[in-house]
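Quick one, tokens below:
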């Protein structure tokens, strides 16, 4: 594990391996830097790969108050340690964050967006007040309720699935990082749940991916997203059921795209 320091003094932990052109991996909700490690490892023979803990997760620190700009600065700090610019692979809400960061001028040379939860139809939009309601639950010490509220309203999981997760042995791990659901809700709520004008104008090659057996709402968003961006295309990766990433297949698609 290595560390760097973000602009506000927050320590950001990351792992680095491989050799070649750099790729930085940005994870999604309830993830730490280990989530995308299998894809990174499969890409490492041809690329320098960096997986980092977003603030509030894993071995990274956290500094209040939260703002999306702070997360963009975190990614900028990671890009700096790999030479100043890199391709970026964003997963789920991490893909939304990566696109936003690139649109704000970060030196992203190419962008892979795996199952980004954009809401490109009115039926898929999330409540604009979700981040503030999650913050209120965390402030009240109701971490479990914050987790389930985000799963229901931020992700859109069925109530019976959410009830089952709450009874599962890994639920305490979700509670431990519950404050970070505020961050993921913020980068996927209005106005960031649809491409902003600066995102639409971004002149960076973008590859939008989904697994072949992913959730329908994610597939709808991925299929529609390239038409909203200046230089983007969509591909389906074999496998990948239920918002998971088949590492070897995804790495091969990414390697071809970056070549």
């Amino acid at each position: 594990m290595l560390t760097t320091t973000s602009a506000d003094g927050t320590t950001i932990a990351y792992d680095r391996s491989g050799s070649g052109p750099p790729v930085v991996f940005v994870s999604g909700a309830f993830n730490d830097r280990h989530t995308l490690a299998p894809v990174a490892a499969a890409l490492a023979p041809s690329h320098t790969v960096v997986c980092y803990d977003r603030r509030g997760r894993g071995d990274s620190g956290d500094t209040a108050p939260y703002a999306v700009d702070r997360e963009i600065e975190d990614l900028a700090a990671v890009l700096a340690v790999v030479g100043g610019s890199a391709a970026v692979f964003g997963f789920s809400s991490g893909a939304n964050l990566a696109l936003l960061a690139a649109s704000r001028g970060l030196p992203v040379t190419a962008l892979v967006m795996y199952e980004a939860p954009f809401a490109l139809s009115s039926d898929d939009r999330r409540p604009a007040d979700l981040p503030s309601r999650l913050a209120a639950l965390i402030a009240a010490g109701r971490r479990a309720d914050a987790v389930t509220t985000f799963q229901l309203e931020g992700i859109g999981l069925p109530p019976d699935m959410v009830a089952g997760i709450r009874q599962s042995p890994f639920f305490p791990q979700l509670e431990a990082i519950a404050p970070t659901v505020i961050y993921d809700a913020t980068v996927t709520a209005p106005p960031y749940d649809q491409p902003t004008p600066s995102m639409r104008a971004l002149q960076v090659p973008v590859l939008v991916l989904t697994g072949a057996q992913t959730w329908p709402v994610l597939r709808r968003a991925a299929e529609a997203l390239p038409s909203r961006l200046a230089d983007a295309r969509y591909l389906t990766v074999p496998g990948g059921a239920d918002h998971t990433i088949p590492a070897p297949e995804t790495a091969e698609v990414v390697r071809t795209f970056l070549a």
